[in-house]
Amino acid sequence: MPEFDNSPYVVVSSDCHAGLPTEEYRPYIEAKYHPAFDDFLAEQAARVEAATKLGVRNPEFARAWFEEHEEGLRGGWDSAQRDKELDADGVTAEVIFPDADAVESTTAAPFGVGLTFSGGLDQELALVGARAHNRWLAELCSHSPERRRGVALVPITGDVDAAVAEIRRAKESGLGAVMIPAMWEDKAPYHDRRYDPVWAVCEELRMPVATHSGVAPRDEYGDHLGIYVSEVTWWPARPIWFLIWSGVFERFPGLKFGVTEAGCWWAPNLLWFMDRLFLGAHAAAKLTPFEEVKRPPSEYFDRNCFIGASNTKRRELAHRYEIGIDNMLWGNDFPHPEGTWPNTRKWLRTTFHDIPVDETRRMIGLAAAETYGFDVAKLAPVAERVNLRPGDLGQSGGEAAGWAAAREVGRHWLTGHDFPVIGYGATLGGHRTDDVGPEVS
Amino acid sequence: MPEFDNSPYVVVSSDCHAGLPTEEYRPYIEAKYHPAFDDFLAEQAARVEAATKLGVRNPEFARAWFEEHEEGLRGGWDSAQRDKELDADGVTAEVIFPDADAVESTTAAPFGVGLTFSGGLDQELALVGARAHNRWLAELCSHSPERRRGVALVPITGDVDAAVAEIRRAKESGLGAVMIPAMWEDKAPYHDRRYDPVWAVCEELRMPVATHSGVAPRDEYGDHLGIYVSEVTWWPARPIWFLIWSGVFERFPGLKFGVTEAGCWWAPNLLWFMDRLFLGAHAAAKLTPFEEVKRPPSEYFDRNCFIGASNTKRRELAHRYEIGIDNMLWGNDFPHPEGTWPNTRKWLRTTFHDIPVDETRRMIGLAAAETYGFDVAKLAPVAERVNLRPGDLGQSGGEAAGWAAAREVGRHWLTGHDFPVIGYGATLGGHRTDDVGPEVS
């Protein structure tokens, strides 16, 4: 076995969540909006009931979850507890989205600006709620600031000048990224030039812009949970092709846009499909050129986009040479039950055991550190303390050989190859996974 | 080289188009709707202008297309010319959707019920237009009936009783399938029980139900063609997960639903994602069971769904063991320029040259023949005359070996394997495609 770099991983979770118990946001809300806030609080029971009816919430599971994790879940808003949980879980740093409690919504950001953030909200109240959360979040991030990157909520579908002002204010307060509504609903789609001032300020301030999954057109789904889950990843990803094809990344080459907790399994097909369209597929022979787009969409994707891929699946990792290793930002989704907390060390071993160490370093940390502007030197002592090493994932430095063919083929439609190639020469020997089951497939 | 079955292929195109020059539909429309029909005809210029503005239509391409193919394009409505074109192109039989002219829309079915068929149309006029097209189409199919399967247009988003009656009438007139609006827009989504009488009659009469790509929420796209093309395949496929998760295929186990000309590259991820959800992913631990769904979604997909995959791409063929060979129905899209006509023989060779013959027989013909109820014995003499054989595709009977690993892995999440496997052991030797270019990738 060759010697290899077994130094600790800098693990950056690109998908964590924090939020106050909702009623505690009151001091962060201007007094004249307190009556509206009372109304919002009063609707909490109805929101939980609706979630239960759709099947997103299961009362028995909820009881067990809170009982088992009572202490850890206080890390949703308590910085000391949060550091303790991250350390134990193997995580060096984190990007913080809203809504700590995804089970009972007891920490929903005011006026619906958390994971239900959408253009369909009352846009005036949305800005009030966003400011309240953003102010509190800046306080949270002032503890252990080197390991936290707070994501400001900004309702850009409303007043654009106010949105730009809030982005500047958020940046000054110490926040480092911007979450926009995943759906514009009846507001202007994101190709609209009205948003150019938003993209401009985010480019100027190096604030990555992100959506997060959660919102979807639930009115169309009845109570069929499967429909919701089947397309809840599509809606927050949708802005990617709106921004690429409308030339936003030509006009704002430094802008970064990402979609969070929506998987990354769809990215290879998306890139293949868009590149082929741009490069002149037979089917496009009757189409006019794409004037606002100067290069293959995958080039914008690599330069301007990223995926907060959360708990990456084996199937997704197998496609990483098409997705782009630096585009896949792992996350533990702390403290949500869909995520890997508090078992991240075990999950990372299960999914990354045969992935080359240098690629693992990018996907579970360094790519996110660059995207979100962490100071890796300052993270080094935290990583030492957290102490998660390649050897802990079962890696030994010889992982690259089995993936050589897949790496060489890469994006086959750009490298002249015939079809995608998956690692290990796609031989069957020894790569059955009877011991892990469908949850990692 | 072993001996192999070099008998002619029965090639069934699951995606062809026919339609009268629009004004010639007048005799098929009840007189009281003639004024409305005059209005529809008057809007034709505006429709072409809108298509040009979006970039779907390119005037120079259009001129060249009509000049070069003047005679063949008459096959859009002339049965003798049509047979001549199919024979020359290598096609034994065909499934016929509306709108022969996808370039200038000169054969648009009345009142928007062609490839712009949607729940957003005036539903009364939609039924009038559908009946007009259906009556004419039955006449077309009365010529060479053994090789034609006409698809009746039925606006099920309007009056359900009227829709059921039209389906029965269409069946009696000789049509063999039903096309429904790809988008319901402001009407009821397809999980709604109001549609049960439609599913029931289609099951009873063995009429497969299909959508066809074309409709999308263009109001959201501005003039950005890339956005339209990037998601125009998603909208017509959307009913698949609405029907599966709402238990339609439990209630109507004999119902067949398919999506046409929307590619099939998305199917592996969809099946993987839905099966994992059903089978109890970690992420679903907080979710209630799916009461209306009794088996993994891929089982319904295999039993009840199909994809009219049109001009299958190499990337799609490489994933056929995940998609399901009998779920991929090839088509030449005659007489649309996105399709392979009049070069289908060459295209089939380019894309299928290394695919096992028995699998090719299913994908380019027999699976469609079963789905759409063709009498294969009656097609045999046509296939003899058309005379397209495995040898003509460059096949020699030894193709299976290189795909053995991929076939064994199949749907890896159900077979206990780790990640997908692509054919040829995914070795690189000899499988570069420098000579074919991106149009087949």
Automatic annotation (TrEMBL), chains A, B:
Keywords: Hydrolase, Lyase. Residues 125-374 form the Amidohydrolase-related domain. Coiled coil: none annotated. GO terms for biological process: secondary metabolic process. One of its GO terms (cellular component) is cytoplasm. One of its GO terms (molecular function) is carboxy-lyase activity. This is Amidohydrolase 2.
